[in-house]
Write a structure and sequence with these properties.
39% helix, 16 helices, alpha/beta
Length: 363
């Protein structure tokens, strides 16, 4: 097991859970870890090596950069090409290839693209550059949306005139619904995302669990957390039941963080949103409400982009839908590498291709 925890007691607990899984999983089972952080942790700690051959783990649409549509990536790049604009963004987005270029290439050509670690940093950039328009690229699920909502409220309260947000924020439950509706995935259970669930609560998965008869277990990100979540999924499958279980109670409640949800509700409203690999999903995006339209970059700027071009041969869309693995892609590890990525699944710190490359013997 790679990067073993230092505590012998913890190691023994992990091995005990793994043995318990092996005793139960006597027939083939296929589970999806929805969150990209789960994917990275599973690879980083070598957890697959502890699981029985009967049990397969596949990744889902839980990497926010990976599911951002090619068209939205092109729009982000278009903002950066405006002479009066400074783009503020999280680092993962910078190297994601658009149809023709990337934010990194735009920056190398003279565009102002600033990497920030918090949306609040965009406020400071706006304050320091009163002669420029600062556009913050809002990407992420329910985990990051509340902090962006708080930033919008602060900018409104302080009457900051040169800041706006391009919101491509998405919510997870509609995507899971779309994933299972109308297609046979062969998924026996969902390892639900801990970060997102801390905001929306474990209750959010009840509808998916009941409608598709799919076990759902919310788990944390430490090796013991993940294996415990997998154990509960296996146990449900063996018993022939499907319910929502929360084994990450130190961070996740049944109802979620009501204050954070209220913050999102005040600033954002649901809208249809484009997802890479999944198409347009009804009610899965978060648009800035009309009350804050003066801080909406889509309203402030007239952005048009040429026809979107998907990268030929890239299987990111299929990987997000659990229809393919990185090793199925003819570009993986050859044409597409972390230093020369073709698709976002290789760029993002939560991307499945990145995890396979870094921890699968390719690095």
């Amino acid at each position: 097991m790679k990067n073993q925890p230092e505590s012998p007691k913890m190691v023994e607990e992990i091995l005990q859970i793994a043995r318990a899984i092996g005793e139960l999983a006597t027939r083939p089972m296929r589970f999806m870890e929805v969150c990209g952080t789960h994917t990275m942790s599973i690879f980083r700690h070598g957890l697959r090596s502890l699981l029985p051959k009967t049990l397969e783990l596949v990744s889902g649409p839980g990497c926010p950069v990976c599911v951002t549509s090619q068209e939205d990536i092109d729009r982000m790049i278009a903002f950066s090409l405006k002479e009066e604009v400074i783009v503020a963004t999280f680092g993962d987005l910078v190297r994601v290839p658009g149809s023709r270029t990337s934010l990194a290439e735009a920056r190398a050509s003279g565009a102002r693209v600033e990497i920030v670690y918090s949306p609040a940093s965009a406020l400071e950039i706006a304050r320091q550059n009163p002669d420029k328009q600062v556009v913050f690229l809002g990407v992420g699920f329910e985990t990051t949306a509340p902090t962006v909502a708080a930033t919008i409220l602060e900018a409104d309260a302080r009457d900051i005139q040169n800041l706006s947000v391009f919101s491509t924020h998405k919510v997870m439950p509609p995507a899971l619904d779309a994933l299972f509706r109308g297609q046979e995935l062969g998924i026996d259970g969902l390892l639900c995302p801990g970060h997102v669930s801390a905001i929306i609560g474990a209750r959010a998965y009840e509808k998916i669990c009941q409608e598709f008869n799919i076990p759902c277990v919310v788990a944390g990100f430490e090796p013991e957390d993940i294996l415990r979540g997998v154990f509960h999924l296996v146990r449900q499958k063996v018993k022939g039941v499907a319910r929502v279980e929360n084994v990450y109670e130190r961070a996740v409640t049944w109802e979620g963080n009501q204050n954070a949800c209220a913050l999102m509700e005040k600033v954002f409203e649901k809208r249809d949103a484009r997802w890479r690999g999944l198409g347009t999903i009804k009610g899965s995006g978060l648009a800035i409400r009309d009350d804050f339209s003066h801080l909406n970059a889509e309203r402030r700027f007239d952005i048009t982009v040429p026809e979107t071009r998907e990268k030929k041969g890239c299987l990111c869309g299929e990987i997000i839908r659990a229809r393919a693995l990185p090793l199925d892609c003819s570009l993986f590890g050859r044409v597409c590498t972390p230093t020369s990525p073709v698709g976002p699944c290789m760029v993002s710190s939560e991307g499945t291709c990145s995890a396979y490359y870094r921890y699968g013997g390719h690095a």
